[in-house]
Amino acid sequence: MISRRQLIAAGGTVAAGLAMPWVARASGPIKMRLAHATAESHPGHIAAVEFKKAFEARLPGQVEVQIFPNRMLGDDKQNLESAVAGTIEICMASGVLFPLVTGRQAMDAYQLPFLVRDYEHFGELATSDIGQKILEDLGEAGLVGLATSDIGQRNFLSVGAPVTNLAGFQGLKTRIVPVPLHKAIWEAVGTSPVGLPYGEVYGALQTKVIDAVEINVSSIVGENLWEVGKYLTLTGHYPWTAVIACNKGYFDGLPAEVQQAMREAGLASIKPTLDYARDQDHSARDDLVKNKGVQIFELEDLPAMKDKVAPIITEWSGKSPLIAEFVAKAQSST
């Protein structure tokens, strides 16, 4: 996790050059870099593209967002750390990493198990008052949160054999992002969680270092994981969030109309990203079965899995008032 001292030091460095792009405004558009780790077919990239389109449309000819996809400037965590430090202006990173890197716990709310029902429910929550409060909370870590999108409901991909019931999870070496929430969830389910970087998942499945991975369909396609994992169990245990965030020092140095346009573009990017993620999720499942040799299964005792992880919602609600408010909103919405 980046310390407050590092944040302050980085903020001072960034602040020194905040106004410089606007000195040269007459000579061309202001260029901002947006870095992320996903492939161009992935909904995470679509989130970045939709933000770029919406932002540039609001200030035609005045701003230009340069997207660096596919780990060009670093992996997920590195891109987020770079945005906090101000070495890039904007990142799109997995929401699960924000508590890890910034210490701001509230973003965990979206990945509490079986709380967010589907893509439509996610959109309702992400654009609600509590969704905006969770983004605003990132200001304490030197970031301005602009958008939170669901880039794919998570399921379970295994190598050796299909998992068709809760007993099938027991002891499986399962790749997770090494964060406390995911560790708690997958230990409760009964797996043996293994923390690995995203880019190492293919090789680990291929060499049997791990038995399985909890993953969204878009990542199975984007990383060609279907070549090594042939059994997909549909659990839909939580969404995978993508958060677009800007370095706060940089953002605060921009004119008010640019700040407003960035915030509006963030909100505008959510629905088209969700639509793409939902459509790709469903169409890619058919392709995996028909053309990639993947077998898809329903979990026979999904209610039992939900019961195993239900106490985690209560536990995490006690960690942050914002998480508690999010849970109440999610559980009250129909």
Automatic annotation (TrEMBL):
The keyword Protein transport does not apply. It holds the Pfam family DctP. It is found in: Cell envelope. CDD domains: PBP2_TRAP_Siap_TeaA_like (cd13603). Its main location: other. Keywords: Receptor, Signal, Transport. GO terms for biological process: transmembrane transport. One of its GO terms (cellular component) is outer membrane-bounded periplasmic space. PANTHER family: PTHR33376, SIALIC ACID-BINDING PERIPLASMIC PROTEIN SIAP. Belongs to the bacterial solute-binding protein 7 family. This is Tripartite ATP-independent transporter DctP family solute receptor. It comes from Tepidamorphus gemmatus. The lineage of its organism: Bacteria, Pseudomonadati, Pseudomonadota, Alphaproteobacteria, Hyphomicrobiales.
